[in-house]
């Protein structure tokens, strides 16, 4: 009887063990099925790897990226640097100077009563600003009376504002009265409105070009000429007095209308209430901009399809090699890359950032890494109410003017590409004290961003600081006469030699005859090597040269899409600011 009982007991134990194992197996199977459901497909996994490899703007940048023994983890603080990140070295030795010289005759002595020049500007706010500035100089060259410029109301930007709704027209006329006679509209002839003869001049037209092409038309035929599509229609290099006139127009005469000025000051005040200092970022990352660039931003097949569909709207654009575009520095930095660059340059997570941008491709997902790096993230829409912005929100140029004011007043200005607004602000900030203006050295940073997972944060940050030498808005970064005059107004930047000599003498006495590096950098040894200097072209043009419409307008950093000249008017206008 004992034997059957033992067998029965063993059998029961075996059945219990089988049930237990079956239960565990069932749980494991259910868990495996659940995990399989959550796991990405092979294609999605490959897509994620591609996005990470190309520094996706959707990556979570606060997480460490490990590779071997190195760990790339950005620091929340800017770290300790041997320089002031909120000011330009040697700025105190330079100042803006655009006073008229004794040999520059007054307008009343040179203006001819039967010569009138009218212009029609082109593009967005900042491209129109360059046109207005150059129009005043063109009128002076022709000894003509200038009619207040007509703003572009029909382009991509579709802003119906006239000159007086953007700028203070009375101040514009009165402040330049000694240089050029300006009137609000053409006088009537025989009681009837006077329609001027319309024509175009080549891009980069010199003094002689205007005298040979435009003046004969005024003198012999019509006495009043309107130059249409007036953008970049004046040579980069001119007589010094004419260059200084350019500066008087751009930096003194072109003052925004009171409603824009007051709202702009309000936005600046609200940024100052939040923080003593702030950075302004002009972020060009709109779908149209990215489609035109032909670059790969790590968004995989979805991105290629979306941007490719936009690109097809412009038949004249050819297919680009994304890697080649980025190697040549022609791709705008992503918001994440801008954030990493700023952190590497010493700006910590407590820094306040004002962002001036249009529609950002990818929306909040694209901006998340930048906001993670800099949580104190603002725009005009977040520091002003809809009611306050209502008088401006239906007008793209007025909204752009508000951003212009906040960016101009910022302690540090940074851009992710070198568009018209970035160039004009760069020149303006040099003129008014060389406030730090950061332009990405996109050619050098490209490889660094691509390989950042293979280095420590310290190594990455060190390389960023090296690559950005010559791109920080310091005095004499760019040699006089190189690049666009609106970005490098060298004829209007003067040096305070007396203050410089005193600082040098003081430093020598303090260091027993050795010049202290922090006080002064010598003329022949700036803070970057010649190999790192931006490759600025000589933009002088022969006065008789006819510029083809297909010619690409060059920029200093190789990433300027706004000034492209093409057979697609909408494309040129869209990229203008």
UniProtKB/TrEMBL annotation:
Domain of life: Eukaryota
One Gene Ontology biological process: fucose metabolic process
Residue ranges of the TM segments: 20-39
Alphabetic keyword roster: Carbohydrate metabolism, Fucose metabolism, Glycosyltransferase, Membrane, Transferase, Transmembrane, Transmembrane helix
Region described as Disordered: 506-577
Biased composition (Acidic residues): 565-577
UniProt-recorded Gene Ontology molecular function terms: glycosyltransferase activity
Similarity comment: family membership: Belongs to the glycosyltransferase GT106 family.
Name of the molecule in the record: O-fucosyltransferase family protein
Organism: Gossypium mustelinum (Cotton)
